[in-house]
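I wish you would study the pair of lines that follows with an eye to the fold:

===
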Amino acid sequence: MKAHDGIYLDGAWRPAAGRDVIEVVDPADEQVIARVPAGDAEDVDAAVRAARAALPGWAATPPAERAARLTALRDVLARRKDEIAETVTAELGSPPAFSQAVHAGLPIAVAGSYAELAATHSFEEKVGNSTVLHEPIGVVAAITPWNYPLHQIVAKVAPALAAGCTVVLKPAEDTPLTAQLFAEAVHEARVPAGVFNLVTGLGPVAGQALAEHPGVDLVSFTGSTAVGRRIAATAGAAIKKVALELGGKSANVILPSADLARAVHAGVANVMSNSGQTCSAWTRMLVHRDRYDEAVELAATAAAKYGDRIGPLVNAKQQERVRSYIEKGLAEGARLVAGGPKSPRERGYFVAPTVFADVTPEMTVAQEEIFGPVLSVLRYEDEEDALRIANGTVYGLAGAVWAADEAEAVAFARRMDTGQVDINGGRFNPLAPFGGYKQSGVGRELGAHGLAEYLQTKSLQF
């Protein structure tokens, strides 16, 4: 795969200060496909300095011109859609069709939405005898994960640029090629030098240096809750704003009146998408006791049809993590009805689509984020019991409710402690705010609420 041997700094590709490299591995066959620089604290410092130097000019750029650069960025991404999909497939292992539709298609839509918001958003308003200004917060550290590499980059960088902020991006070390491709698109879109900067590197080195850098005003991080805690503590010491999109253990609640076959098949498909590497996946399926056995049979049949077509997990560590959770589920008494810990292929980081039945709420597989193609099916006694189970984890990122009557589903969804709920298979909306309750994070991404994370407020009294 094509790879740059430098970092993108102040509008150009430059040699990294650090001499170490990161090997990029194709998770489908375990072969090294590229090498990129492992940037260090010196590289991070140079990138932050470039972003700080570019901040006054970009913040003063009229919103219409910022919108024009974002429109140009969207157009470049659209033109290079096939290349994006091929790159994501190579370094993440995503099946080509999913890479094309989701990994490439969704970021294009999100970039376009922020081009429109930059042009139409009111950056000041009248409140009584005051004029309230919404100003860019400053230099943004964007630290992104590997599971949706381009989407997570665009979901942070696009609103930051729309707000008038400048950015230093530190992408996940498993998927740096997609980030480099994005930097090329930024350059091609003629975003001014220093407004966007890219440092590839390891989380404990480059990520930590970026989060604690005094020249950074906001840290926007997507990843595990454990790392999110450390970033929040680091930023908190400097009274620095953080936006955190973290883990999930979302409940798919199938009420007794629902179309069971439709709800179960949609739920299995949701969990298996992106090889289960989705923080908002509905990994707990809650079914009334009277329909439980039927639901388990439907789920097992649906999962078995996926076979090994869902693609590998991102790396060997993640494969072993998911296998260990499957083993723990068996040890704690869950009943395996599909899949299991054994890999379906000789090579590659694959895990079979797995379904557990007879899962109780306190089991590890019902409480902790597994981040793989593993579904737990739980039974409930009545609606109050279902609500107790649905809300009974430390997470609150997403969820789903199914019922014959939409009003019934909405009434239940209103009582769920979670940031986003799909009603009867509602479609994903890239303009709706996305983010979590409890330990699933702080702040929101996407749409106007995502833009607001990158603005600070000043009031002028007359």
The chain has a mean pLDDT of 97. The CA atoms of residues 74 and 297 lie 44 Å apart. The chain is about 40% helix and 20% strand. The radius of gyration is 22 Å.
